[in-house]
Specification:
- There is one protein chain.
- The chain is mainly alpha-helical.
- It has 2 domains: 123 residues, Arc Repressor Mutant, subunit A, CATH 1.10.10; 75 residues, no CATH class.
- 61% of the residues lie in helices and 6% in strands.
- The protein has 12 helices and 3 strands, in the order H-H-H-E-H-H-E-E-H-H-H-H-H-H-H.
- Helix 6 runs parallel beside helix 7 and helix 8 runs parallel beside helix 10.
- The N and C termini lie far apart (93 Å).
């Protein structure tokens, strides 16, 4: 037999008021209270409903020790009256509705006067649940709003910058010290190459994102072409001239 099939044979699940766990001292207290409250209008004695510990264990799943602790907490709060008839070997449990109403009002901090008769107990429990649900809903909405705002803010902050677009050569574009160093290393005339580079780009409508990098490539290619030229010897600088040019560029 599967576990789920077995569960159908072991009885019905019980319901309790989860919101009563805190004011009544815990989940066990709330479970026991809810079960005894269910039996109140079915009691045949003014002392309340008669239940044995074994019956309560079968109905709630609470062990004798758990029942003893829960009963103690409920009695301390005045919401449960326990009467033991030793000669009859019976224990009666009666819900003190007035105390229940007081405990719930204090816990929920009600600002209105609530009815105190037994028929109004369900109504008061509904009011407690409604108020708790309203507070919970408001809190959830506040948390959601703050979280959404925080996430939106983070998205705005983390939004990537707009990517640069290629454009034609700027009017104020001029060679840099880095271009001078490349020209010296490649043994080429920077001014002549810059004029040729600028004319070529304007004549062909060239567009680049990074014009400094584009001119770097132009200078390196110019040096490569010059080294491959048959007239390379005539244009080649001596080592001393090259070192002198490097020093002058560094001083400049």
């Amino acid at each position: 037999m599967n576990a789920t099939d077995y569960m159908r044979t072991i009885g019905k699940p019980i319901a309790y008021y989860p919101k009563l766990a805190k004011p009544l001292g815990g989940i066990s207290s709330a479970i026991l209270f809810s079960q005894l409250f269910y039996w109140q209008d079915k009691a045949t004695s003014d002392l309340g409903v008669y239940k044995t510990r074994d019956e309560l264990e079968d109905e709630t799943g609470l062990s004798h020790n758990e029942q003893r602790t829960a009963i103690k907490k409920l009695c301390e709060r005045g919401v449960l009256i326990v009467t033991e008839k030793r000669l009859e070997h019976k224990t009666y449990y009666k819900i003190n509705n007035e105390k229940v109403n007081k405990v719930l009002r204090n816990f929920a901090k009600f600002m209105i006067e609530l009815p105190r008769d037994i028929n109004s107990t369900h109504l008061e429990l509904d009011i407690v649940d409604a108020e708790m649900a309203t507070k919970s809903s408001s809190l959830d909405q506040e948390i959601t709003t703050k979280t959404t705002t925080k996430i939106t803010t983070n998205i705005i902050v983390a939004k990537p910058q707009r990517q640069k677009r290629a454009c034609q050569i700027p009017d104020d574009f001029e060679p840099t010290t880095n271009h001078q160093d490349i020209a010296v290393n490649e043994n080429i005339n920077l001014d002549n190459e810059f004029i040729k580079f600028k004319d070529y780009c304007l004549a062909n409508g060239k567009k680049y994102i990074d014009w400094n990098a584009a001119f770097n490539n132009w200078l390196r290619n110019a040096g490569k072409y010059q080294r491959a030229s048959p007239n390379n010897k005539a244009n080649f600088m001596t080592l001393a001239e090259r070192n002198r040019a490097v020093l002058e560029s560094m001083r400049g």
